[in-house]
Amino acid sequence: MRFRHIMAGCLSLxxxxxxxxxxxxxxxxxxxxxVAPQTTSGTTTPASSADPNDNAATDKEAKELTGxxxxxxxxxxxxxxxxxxxxENDQKGKEQCLIFKSDLYGGDIETETGPxxxxxxxxxATKIAADDSPDxxxxxxxxxxxxxxxxxxxxxxxxxxxxxxMWEEMADTIDSFEYKGNHYxxxxxxxxxxxxxxxxxxxEENNLPDPYELYKSGNWTWNEFRDMMIQxxxxxxxxxxIYTTDYSLLPFIATTGTVLVDVxxxxxxxxxxxxxxxxxxxGFYETLYRDGVMYAKQFxxxxxxxxxxxxxxxxxxxxxxxxxxxxxSTENLQNPAGVESDIHDxxxxxxxxxxxxxxxxxxxxxxxDTYGFLVPKGAKNITGAVEWINLFRAYDIDPEVIxxxxxxxIHPKPVYYTEGKYAGERKWQIxxxxxxxxxxxxxxxxxxxxxxxxxxRGFNSTFWQQYGSLLCDVLYxxxxxxxxxxxxxxxxxxxxxxxxx
Length: 501
Prior knowledge:
By secondary structure, the chain is an alpha/beta fold. It contains 16 helices and 13 strands. The protein has 2 domains: 207 residues, 3-Layer(aba) Sandwich (D-Maltodextrin-Binding Protein, domain 2); 220 residues, D-Maltodextrin-Binding Protein, domain 2.
């Protein structure tokens, strides 16, 4: 069986340090719509900031690109962006937008936001059919092989040579998304998927071993993970070991080195639900259910970072994307409504670790995601869109930006509002701990893990709804994976057969 492993030279720690904070509008990797109430799928995310003036102008200056092999034209023009959130208000793209609008690029952005999930895909398809295509969309619009098979995007091979110095370290990743000989998606960086988020205060107060220290010493395994949750839950009947969803179960399965569905660029697709690795991973979660450490909706249907922040004394692990969870949980405690009670320059009590290592696997496997953009079919300003894509890649590898961004996270300089009712007041910013920031970057370094990519969500929403419900029945109802997977196998095989070529 072939996995889309990322070569060790593909992505260095420094290249990823140019990433800024997570979007405030929605969780990372939105798209699927699982019907199970315990999932994150299709859930509207509350804004991570309690500050009603959060988007008011401040005195923070945009960073500048200092060099590199890419030279922009200075005439990128206006690009039309379609997304379910504003890229200009998103901390992953705000500064890049300012650079794009500078004289260096000569660009501008016309933003249209819309719904998420299936409605977003329908809106994009309608615009393409009406010859009103946007010029750029985020990776959320790319289902592999779902929307790739529908001819919704322009092949970028004529516009970007990914063997140039700027792109060559992403070449294997770009090739992993090849479809029928074309490359539609040029991700500019890898991103962490889901981790185990926890409160350092809770660990200390309950005399539990520090997961981070276990990870650094090479002892962070499934067994230690389970033992810690049992120990915590034995301390109080109100304690919960872990909140996991259908989404966040996927990276646990991936620690075996196997994913549920693996799509290959040659058109072959592997259904791995009956492999010994997947069976063993799901059996482990059946054991956790019997151990009584699983979430039983004590804090509501969905444990967002904000909900976790106020219940972390009773919930040991919350499995959510780490950057978003770390920021949003911290902000919920340090940035209440208004600015009068804001807590500045204080490192968060929250932390995170990778999913534990499978003690039976031959390597330390982790699921990885990507971030990037695509150009929809029929776009009128393809050259401007390509400049946009190249800008984000150049930003990620600019050495001065990399160094500055790390410093901004760990030692943020005060930023003040310049307009609105908070004019002159200091804006809240998270102060990252060095441990958390460096681990966040370390988790994207293939020198530390063997990365695999999961494709089960890349077909259509109906398929993922059904598969997500199956996973949640094991997580929350204690169903037998062996029995339920046998029942569901015909649906999986029929869906895969539809997309083979």
